[in-house]
Design brief:
- The chain is built from 3 helices and 4 strands, in the order ββαβααβ.
- Helices cover 61% and strands 15% of the residues.
- Helix 1 runs parallel beside helix 3 (44-59).
- With 66 residues, the protein is α+β, with helices and mostly antiparallel strands.
- The chain has helices spanning 12-22, 27-39, 44-59; strands at 2-4, 9-11, 24-25, 63-64.
């Protein structure tokens, strides 16, 4: 699934890679993930990737930027 925002068009896997590389989730990345979840057309792999990111935030492996 391609996430369309004002600044970029990225897939869930591209957002996932950006977040892991930087170690943080930015506002735009959070917005893109939320938008994808609300469209309710994600594959099982995309849902797993989002769940992994949420797990990493809960464990403190990733930080959330304001």
């Amino acid at each position: 699934m391609v996430i369309q925002g004002n600044f970029y068009k990225l897939t869930i896997s591209e957002i996932f890679c950006q977040i892991w590389r930087s170690g943080k989730i930015t506002y735009l990345e959070r917005w893109g993930l939320m938008s994808a979840l609300l469209k309710d057309s994600l594959t099982e792999d995309e849902m797993d990737a989002i769940n992994r990111l949420l797990h990493a935030v809960r464990r403190g492996w990733l930080r959330v930027e304001e």
